[in-house]
Amino acid sequence: MSNLDSFIKSSRPPPKPLATSQEIRDRGSIFVANVFTATSPDEARKAVHHLKHVTHGSRPATHEIAAWRCMVLKTGKTGLGGPDDFEVVGGFDDDGEKYAGNKVLKVMQAEGVIDAVVVVSRWYGGEMLGPARFDHIELCTREVCRTFRLKDDMATCIATLTSLDDILSSLRAELASLTSSKSTPDGSELSNRGVGEQPTSEGGTSAVAAVPTKKTRPSYTAIEESLDVARAQRLITARENSIKSVKQALQKARAQTTPA
Question: Where are the alpha helices (DSSP H) in 77-131?
């Protein structure tokens, strides 16, 4: 059975790069880096194997230079002891390009990348490049490492926003239940729409009004794909301010419904 067939028939999806660098061409040689998620050295090796034998199977690279850094459980530890139960384990494979793997690992360390494997593929062009080849390897590595960090930061922001949306939706539902039975002086029914809303710099809309009820959820696909972490952080601040405002409105509503 070929390597490709084995991956197709496997129940687990094949490794997919989170980022790919631009190609660097120099005197016939081509350099390109890929970064994959890897939570263990074994997972890192599987990603390297897939890239080398499946992705590049029809056009093998001269060298597949790899390095990984993974947060793993220390021997004899359970993980219940907190951060001290874990350690970062790193490694590299030159794949025939002496000293190159350690160059990749050092860039990963400098960029603070963990739980990832970076593979720099080089197709030799027939002419020796000397020390310049290491500059190309490091440049490719740095590019994918920075994209990896951005995607990791964005994933954290999206998770935070989703959690805040749930909290805000719950608070607004509670506020609606408290205010629905009240009436205004002209006899019209009060609504929680607008209560605790504050204008924001995000399109000039209200932070509270921007969060739908449980029937509809906001989509963060566009901002996630843009990797605009600064904007995501502004949205988090807007949600937090809205939650604070609705909590204040809830306190007032509870006080009004409490019998004297």
Answer: 100-111
Give me the residues paired with residue 92 across strands: 67
Beta bridge pairs of residue 121: 32, 64
Q: What is the pTM of this model?
A: 0.77
Say how far apart CA 148 and CA 59 lie, in whole Å. 26
Residue 200 DSSP SS3: coil
Q: Using CA atoms, how far apart are residues 216 and 240, in angstroms rounded to an integer?
A: 20
Q: Are 70 and 113 in contact (CB under 8 A)?
A: no
Residues 25-50: tens digit of each pLDDT: 999 999 999 999 999 999 999 999 99
**Which of 146, 104, 118, 129 shows the shortest CA–CA distance to 25?**
129
3-class secondary-structure state, position 32: strand
pLDDT computed for residue 180 by the predictor: 78
Instruction: With a cut of 70, say whether residue 212 has pLDDT above it.
Output: no
8 A C-beta contact, residue 138 and residue 103: yes
Q: Is the pLDDT of residue 190 over 50?
A: no
Paired with 89 in beta bridges are 70
